[in-house]
Structures are given as structure tokens and as C-alpha cells.
Design a protein that fits this description.
- The chain folds into two domains: 2-135, NAD(P)-binding Rossmann-like Domain (Rossmann fold), CATH 3.40.50; 140-219, no CATH class.
- Helix content is 48%, strand content 15%.
- It has eight helices and seven strands.
- The protein has helices at residues 11-22, 38-46, 56-65, 121-128, 138-159, 171-185, 188-197, 201-219; strands at residues 2-6, 26-30, 49-52, 72-74, 90-94, 108-112, 132-136.
- It has a seven-stranded mixed beta sheet with strand order 2-1-3-4-5-6-7, with helices on both faces.
- The radius of gyration is 19 Å and the shape is globular.
């Protein structure tokens, strides 16, 4: 299989390039800012699969400007923003990446079945091999990600402003460092877009803010 990865120099792009080459696929790619012009366009059009490993606002812009492509796979962490391309792109969310590559668990991929064309599950399985494919709607995906990605990202950003000190390390302070690592090890742009583009982020902000305000009312 010939695969083209747009965003091949980013964290996920590098990871997917290595993953697909290990599977014996032919992989080429480019960064979205490379400016290779027609030569890059020819490589993309000749590929069997075009994977968008770029920030989601750039993915949206690319799809709108390249409506002639029929082999696009987008892998972002927010899905409702891609509804306008229903039936035209394959929308998936791999729940693994460069930071979880060594974890000995079966890899899981969410397949957005109200955006992706029917029958494209087979393409995803061909690309990734032995994975647990979970099908759901874009709305359900974004609701779940608000809990499992957005909320931890927000709390991690808050914790990154706190210095627990190093003189005496406790289990609690070590866990705080682990929480802080979430935002420090993630791509800042991916983290920011995951929060800002998810339609349910506001409710998570309010829940966290309410908890802080209630505690502040007892302390201040």
C-alpha cells in the first residue's frame, strides 16, 4: 500500500511513518509548510491513502481546498467539526501514539461511523492490523473525549502553574508531577486545539471552575 502522510515531521506523523514502514507499506510525506507545490500534489494523488497528521484547523482547511481527493483519512481528537465532509473522508481517532508506543495493551481505534463512508472499516484494519476498532458517532466521541482528554488537559495546565517543591517528595506530590507531565509532554498545539475545538469543553471548564470556587469559598 502506498501511503502519504501530511505532517510527517510532527510527533504523530513520525510515529505513523515508522509504524507503516514496519508493516511493509511504502510511505512518503511532507510537512504542510514544505511548499513543494505540484510535485507534492502528484505524490499525494498517486497514493492509496492520504493521512492528515496535522492540527485540526489545518486539516479542515486542507480538505476544503482539496475536494478532489477521495482517499483522505483524518486522525484528530475532535470529530464534530468534520461533519461537513460526511461520506467524503475517513474519520478515525487512534487512541495510541508516540507516548504510548511501548505500552503492552491492544491498540484501540475509534471509527466515526456517521462521517466515514460505509465499509471503510476494512481500510482501517488493513492500515493498522490487529487493533480493537470501536464504532461511534462524532457527537458521542466528542462527549467522551471531553471527559478523557479535555478535562485532564485543563487540570494539567492548571497544575503546571504549581511548584510542589523538591525538598520532601510525597506520593501526592509525585502524582501531581505526573498530572503536570500530561501537558508538558503533549504537543502544545494539539493540546490547545483539542480543548478549543471540542463543543463540550465549556461544560468541563464550568465543572472544574465550580469545584475550585466551592473550595475557595471555604478557604478565603
Amino acid at each position: 500500500m502506498d501511503i502519504f502522510i501530511l505532517g510527517n515531521r510532527g510527533r504523530m506523523g513520525v510515529f505513523l511513518t515508522s509504524l507503516f514502514r514496519k508493516k511493509g507499506f511504502s510511505v512518503s510525506g511532507s510537512d504542510i509548510s514544505d511548499g513543494k507545490g505540484e510535485s507534492m500534489g502528484t505524490e499525494m494523488r498517486n497514493s492509496e491513502v492520504l493521512i492528515l497528521a496535522v492540527p485540526q484547523d489545518q486539516a479542515l482547511k486542507f480538505i476544503r481546498e482539496h475536494d478532489g481527493f477521495t482517499n483522505i483519512v483524518e486522525i484528530g481528537s475532535v470529530k464534530s467539526i468534520f461533519r461537513e465532509f460526511t461520506g467524503k473522508i475517513v474519520s478515525i481517532h487512534p487512541l495510541f501514539g508516540p507516548l504510548s508506543e511501548d505500552r503492552e495493551i491492544k491498540r484501540r481505534i475509534i471509527f466515526i461511523d456517521d462521517i466515514s463512508p460505509a465499509g471503510k472499516e476494512s481500510l482501517v484494519m488493513r492500515l493498522f492490523g490487529d487493533v480493537d476498532l470501536v464504532k461511534m458517532t462524532a457527537d458521542r466521541h466528542d462527549r467522551i473525549m471531553a471527559d478523557v482528554l479535555v478535562a485532564p488537559y485543563i487540570i494539567s495546565l492548571i497544575s503546571s502553574r504549581i511548584n510542589p517543591g523538591r525538598e520532601f517528595m510525597t506520593r501526592s506530590s509525585m502524582l501531581l508531577n505526573c498530572i503536570t507531565d500530561i501537558s508538558q509532554k503533549e504537543s502544545p498545539e494539539v493540546l490547545r486545539k483539542t480543548i478549543l475545538l471540542n463543543p463540550y469543553s465549556t461544560s468541563k471548564f464550568r465543572e472544574i471552575q465550580l469545584g475550585i470556587n466551592e473550595l475557595a469559598g471555604e478557604l478565603l
